[in-house]
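testing teh design pipeline on a random one, pls ignore if ur not involved
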């Protein structure tokens, strides 16, 4: 079995998927951030399901969660990287609910995706402590964005929402971490072609969202 052909096939398919995702992002960028169709969850079940859905149907958040998990596999004690992200995302949501505004969330979120995607494609990257700090800051901004879907909800729905999105992020990032470990097989000295291909896809998603959000800020759509 020719491994180079397999990796080439994987990379080609990954790039095709990235282009498809990019089209979907530009076609309807807002829909991915409202699990309840823009309606605030009103009970425990709706809050929990909304929490589970938000990080999954929001391609920008999903890409970052996967990136954090994959990158964690590249570092000893790397599991602390996604864990710090998940915990700080809860804090970021809390800040939003308390009315604390973070600057340029719409730029920091895709910028963080692009940055972690780049790290996945390079042989050298910051040490684990720096990456924990970066993932913590990123979590604040991603969590702040999550808070928009639950703003104004009652306590029961709010708590279940936090439980839901925390649980799904742990599952996704943990799964990505395990996949990354199996690919690397304990060798932290180099980035495998598979992880590099994943990094390229994540870079494409981050760059697409960043370009889209920048264009919206520079050329805002007229209201009404």
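output:
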């Amino acid at each position: 079995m020719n491994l180079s052909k397999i990796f080439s096939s994987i990379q080609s398919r990954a790039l095709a998927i990235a282009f498809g995702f990019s089209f979907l992002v530009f076609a309807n960028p807002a829909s991915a951030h409202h699990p309840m169709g823009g309606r605030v969850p009103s009970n425990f079940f709706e809050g929990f399901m909304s929490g589970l859905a938000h990080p999954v149907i929001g391609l920008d958040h999903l890409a970052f969660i996967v990136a954090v998990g994959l990158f964690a596999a590249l570092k000893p004690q790397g599991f602390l990287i996604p864990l710090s992200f998940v915990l700080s995302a809860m804090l970021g949501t809390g800040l939003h609910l308390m009315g604390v505004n973070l600057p340029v969330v719409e730029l920091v979120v895709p910028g963080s995706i692009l940055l972690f995607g780049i790290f996945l494609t390079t042989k050298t990257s910051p040490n684990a402590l720096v990456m924990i700090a970066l993932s913590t800051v990123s979590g604040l901004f991603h969590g702040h964005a999550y808070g928009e879907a639950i703003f104004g909800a009652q306590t029961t729905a709010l708590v279940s929402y936090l439980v839901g999105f925390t649980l799904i992020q742990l599952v996704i990032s943990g799964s990505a971490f395990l996949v990354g470990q199996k690919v690397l097989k304990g060798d932290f000295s180099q980035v495998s072609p598979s992880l590099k291909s994943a990094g390229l896809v994540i870079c494409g998603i981050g760059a697409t969202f960043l370009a889209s959000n920048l264009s919206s800020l520079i050329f805002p759509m007229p209201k009404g």
